Structure formats: C-alpha cells, structure tokens
Amino acid sequence: MKRTVLVGMSGGVDSTVAAHLLTEQGYDVQGLTLWLWDPREGENPCCSVDAAGLAARELGIPHEVVQVQPEFRALVVEPALDAYRRGLTPNPCTVCNREVRFSLLLCEADRRGIEFVATGHHARVRRTETSAHLLRGADPAKDQSYFLYALGQRELARALFPVGEKTKRDIRSLAASLGLTAVRLRESQDLCFAPAGIPALIADARPGPILDLEGRVLGEHRGLPHYTVGQRRGLGLPSPEPLYVVALDGTRNVVIVGPERALYSEELRADALAWVAGGPPGPGFAAEVQIRYRSAPIPAQIAIRGGEARVRFSKPVRAVTPGQAAVVYRGEEVLGGGIIARIA
C-alpha cells in the first residue's frame, strides 16, 4: 500500500521537483498551496496559486488551495512589523516556516489522515530509531536549514525534503528534462509581504536623532525601519571616516553610528530558544553559530542560563543584529537556535 504525502507547493521549481521525486519514489502525492495573501492585493511573490496548479497538472497529481491569510498576517506579518518599529531586524521567514508552512501544513495533513508532509526546502533529515536530525542541504549555495532551526521532533518525524539531497543545478536540469514550466519562472528573492520594502508598510515610523558613540547628535533619521546594523549608505552624515549603523535603540528612538571597528562583537545573548532534539546538548557546549542566512558559521562557546543562550565567539564577528536568528550547528547538523536579543 502506498504511503501518502502532502506536498506544500509554491509553484516554484523546488517544490515542483520535490513532488515529482516523491512520485518516483512510490508515494501517493497530493499537492497543497497555503495561500498567504489577500487575492485582491495581487499575487504573492513567494507563491502563486496559478503556477502551483499548473505544476500539479503537469505532474498529474491532485492539488488544493487553502486560504490562510488571517493566520499569516497574525503570526508573521504583524509581529515582524512590530519588531521593526522597536528597532529590531527580524527574520520573518524563520517564523513563517515554523508557525505557518509546517504547522498549518501538518494540520491540513492531519485533517486528511496523511502521514507525511514535504516541501522544496534545501535541507535534509536523517532519522534513527529514537530521533530525527536536521542537516544542511547538499548544495551549500542553496542550503535553507538556517530557516528551519525551530522545527522539532514532532515536525521532523513527518517531514520530507526530497530536493535537499540535490544541487540546484541538478534540480533545474531535471525540471527542464521533464518539460516543467516551473523551470522558466523567476525565483523570489525579496521578503514576500514587503516587495516595496518594510518602510513602505510602516507609515507611522517616527523620525529621531542619529547619535555617535559618545551620544552627540549628528543628524536625524527617517524612522528606525529604514535602518539596520551594519548599514553605511543613506545616512547622509559628513564625516572624515565612513560611518555605519552600530545599533538601533527602540526605547529612545535613536540610531547610533560609529566607525566600522565598532561593528565587531565577541558575544551575543539569544532568547526564544528552540532545540531540534527538544533541549540543548548541555548547560555549556562548543558549536558553530550562524548569525544570518548568508553568513559563515563561527566556532563559539555556548552557555545556557534559563531561557537564554550566551554565545562567545572564537573571534570578533561583524554586525551582530538583534532580531535575527542565531542558529547553532555542529558540522552539517542543526542543533537549534534562538533570536538575538542583544550584544553582550
């Protein structure tokens, strides 16, 4: 008897090829698109109902659309906008993957009595008799395990990532050989709910002072959502040396700037911790920590105190940004992570 899998389909080449590979592996594949945005506001850059439906027809599998606009706005969009207002730089994709894509996909699978769920993420799962392990995708340039660090045993016990074993080139080549329309579609690179940028969604952002490291006023900022740690362009400040955004203080509504050397930190504190195995390896341990999607992981010592992780890097790290995810790895395996709360 065939095992059934519910595949989250965006219409893109990765989720389309994921559905094809599972069909080839003998699964009974059913496609489902979680429609995240109000249809009256146009196509979501992250997923397309029309493209997903076409992909399902080309593959010869059933396909459904489930409207989840209220959940997406409440769980992802509004918390992200609130964080930007408070001077943070959040990563909504990590929240979306945990709270929407996997949580709601699993709910839909449960409603249908389906055992497995699958997506087109570039990541891998290895299962033993007692647990599931989350690993980086086989293609280092496309690895998306950073966004999945908050998935736990409940999700990973039922998750399949078929394209995680392949390179992007292999996936596109396979899609082309099958004549799939998805291979010709442009991939989305922007934040799906803010194609015009976050500031366009926060009209009430208040201007305030730009301060140097000594607290002197150098100018006025346009509102905290216009800035992020490490930013150099757009400051409009005369200075004998380049100035960068060093910190955003949401309490005082100020932007703090300084020279590039002020961007480097040796420690951070992270909260809202999540661990793939259900808990950390211990109260103190060595691992590698990645502080943004495209950054390299840095060796670090990690100490857990209650619900907070203190991360001390082996070398100073540039532009540690509160609100971003700090994801903990050992080699290719994701141990877990949290949200950067402050620079220690």
Largest sheet, if any? Answer: 6 strands, antiparallel, barrel
Cα-atom radius of gyration:
21 Å
* Tally of separate helices: 6
Low-pLDDT runs of 5+ residues are none
Spatial order of the strands in the main sheet? 12-15-14-13-16-17
What is the number of domains?
A: 3
- How many E strands? 17
Structural class: alpha/beta
Q: Which CATH architecture of the largest domain?
A: 3-Layer(aba) Sandwich
Briefly characterize the structure.
The chain contains six helices and 17 strands. The protein is of the alpha/beta class and 344 residues long. The longest helix has 21 residues.
Describe the protein in words.
The protein is an alpha/beta fold and 344 residues long. It folds into three domains: 181 residues, Rossmann fold; 54 residues, Adenine nucleotide alpha hydrolases-like domains (SH3 type barrels); 79 residues, Beta Barrel (Elongation Factor Tu (Ef-tu), domain 3), CATH 2.40.30. It has six helices and 17 strands. Helix 1 crosses helix 6 and helix 3 packs antiparallel against helix 4. The termini are far apart. 42% of the residues are buried.
